[in-house]
Design goal:
Layout (H helix, E strand, L loop, with lengths): L1 H9 L4 H20 L2 H15 L4 H25 L3 H57 L1
Helix pairs in contact: 1-2, 3-5
Length: 141
């Protein structure tokens, strides 16, 4: 599917390719929703940003079995029918998703600031190097 999506992005836009792209997007979204991958990723990133563990990869590995258990429980409740708890669960998931979205936006803003600072430091270092080179040339002359 990723290869198909990549191929679609390289082609000029036509109504046929637009339709294929839309179908691919719908299919991808259904897959992500079916396996609750977007919700998991949002909550994972929210927790990573909030907790900032020393080893984020170990943290991610630890979260995977817990998510599998939640997915199994969710699938079982789908088979058994909806209950009153489903509304509360949905509300909780929605709130978690909103928090994750907010945390993601905050992280994006923070990374943008850090990138700007790093780029300024790089520009300053280049200017200092240029000035030092100029001074050395003047001393040699």
């Amino acid at each position: 599917d990723a290869v198909a999506l990549t191929g679609l992005l390289d082609k000029p836009e036509t109504s046929a390719s637009s339709s294929k792209r839309q179908q691919a997007a719908v299919s991808a979204r259904q897959y992500l929703d079916q396996h609750q991958l977007l919700q998991w990723a949002q909550v994972l990133f929210q927790n990573l940003i909030r907790e900032q563990p020393e080893d984020p990869w170990a943290y991610i590995e630890k979260s995977r079995p817990a998510q599998r258990d939640r997915n199994a429980q969710s699938s079982q409740s789908d088979v058994n029918g909806k209950s009153g708890d489903d509304k509360a669960s949905f509300a909780t998931q929605f709130a978690d998703a909103k928090q994750a979205q907010f945390a993601t936006e905050q992280a994006k803003a923070q990374l943008s600031k850090e990138l700007e600072i790093a780029m300024q430091k790089q520009a300053d270092a280049k200017a200092e190097a240029k000035q030092a080179k100029k001074e050395i040339s003047e001393l040699r002359a």
